[in-house]
Amino acid sequence: MNRPLPAVSRRWMSIALLALLAVAVAYSIWH
After folding, report:
1. Biggest alpha carbon distance in the chain?
2. How far apart are CA 5 and CA 10, in angstroms?
3. Cα(15)–Cα(31) distance, rounded to whole angstroms?
4. Which of 2, 4, 5, 10 is the most exposed place for a label (fewest CB within 10 A)?
5. How many H helices and E strands in the chain?
6. In a domain? residue 1
7. Whole-structure pTM over 0.70, yes or no?
8. Average pLDDT over the chain, rounded to an integer
9. C-alpha Rg value of the chain to the nearest Å
10. Which structural domain range is residue 21 located in?
């Protein structure tokens, strides 16, 4: 499982991190 990730997976991982950050910001605002 230590194979280098293709560009698509890397892009989706960055998108997932941005989504997680957005969820954290929204949670801190609404709560």
Report:
1. 40
2. 6
3. 24
4. 2
5. 1, 0
6. no
7. no
8. 87
9. 13
10. 7-31
The two three-digit tokens of residue 13, written as one number: 């991982």
27 has a pLDDT exceeding 80 = yes
CA distance 5 to 24: 26
Provide the number of structural domains found in the chain.
Answer: 1
Please state, in angstroms and rounded to a whole number, the distance separating the CA atoms of residues 6 and 8.
5
CA distance linking residue 21 with residue 14, whole number of Å = 11
For residue 26 the two structure tokens come to: 């929204």
On whether the CB atoms of residues 25 and 18 are closer than 8 A, the answer is no
Distances, alpha carbon 30 to alpha carbons 12, 16, 26, 27, in Å: 26, 21, 6, 5
